[in-house]
Amino acid sequence: MPRENFVKHRCGKPTVVATFPTPPKRTPGPTAGSCTEATCVTSHPGLILLVEDDADLRAAFEFTLRRRGYKVVSTGCGLRAVELAVEHQPTLAVVDLLLPGQSGFQVSHALRERFGDNVRVLVMSGYTSSHHRDYAAASGAEAFLAKPFSEVALIDAVEALCPAPIKSQEPFETRRRVKIGA
């Protein structure tokens, strides 16, 4: 069962971010920096794999993350997401649940199978039932972000799993309100 954390933002409104306990038995993938003939896993700090099928949302999320100092590799297809992860070895994958090719659940599971704990997974979706959250946790997601959410909520959820490579002097603030999601 996910544990819900209420994060109070600077605007004063609470946002729900569900975090999941680490599954008790997880098969770890190759360790960071270890190379074998079949695979070489070296996680790139600050590199995020963004998987969102809505092109406008993907562009907005990518812009927000890049502005915060992250490097971003993105796709709108679940099948392509796993290929990009193998190619780029991200630190964090931010994955929508409903995707063409493979679902976000399948992508999350495939990343866990392939990389173990070397790639952390944040799932985002407009479907926020306890069944979706539980299944996301079972497939390997470490956190669940309910759509719609603000830029601040996205940054807070991402930074909880992958600290920003560039720390700004000022706290992250938005200059305008952007509603993300349906």
Characterise this structure.
It is globular, with a radius of gyration of 16 Å. It has five helices and nine strands; from the N terminus they run βββββαβαβαβαβα. The longest helix is centred in the middle third of the chain and has 13 residues, at 55-67. Strands 1-2-9-8-7-5-6 form a seven-stranded mixed beta sheet, sandwiched between helices. The protein is an alpha/beta fold and 182 residues long. It has a single domain (3-20, 44-161), classed as Response regulator (Rossmann fold), CATH 3.40.50. A hairpin with a 4-residue loop joins strand 3 (34-35) and strand 4.
Describe the SSE topology:
Elements (H helix, E strand, L loop, with lengths): L2 E6 L5 E6 L14 E2 L4 E2 L2 E8 L3 H13 L3 E5 L2 H11 L1 E7 L7 H12 L4 E6 L4 H9 L4 E4 L4 H11 L21
Parallel strand pairs: 5-6, 5-7, 7-8, 8-9
Antiparallel strand pairs: 1-2, 2-9, 3-4
Helix pairs in contact: 2-3
Q: Largest beta sheet: what is the strand line-up?
A: 1-2-9-8-7-5-6
Q: Please give the largest β-sheet.
A: 7 strands, mixed
Query: What is the helix fraction of residues, given as a range?
Result: 25-40%
Distance between the termini: 25 Å
Rg, rounded, reads: 16 Å
InterPro entries: Bact_response_regulator (IPR050595), CheY-like_superfamily (IPR011006), Sig_transdc_resp-reg_receiver (IPR001789)
Modified residues (4-aspartylphosphate): 96
Keywords: Phosphoprotein
Domain Response regulatory: 47-162
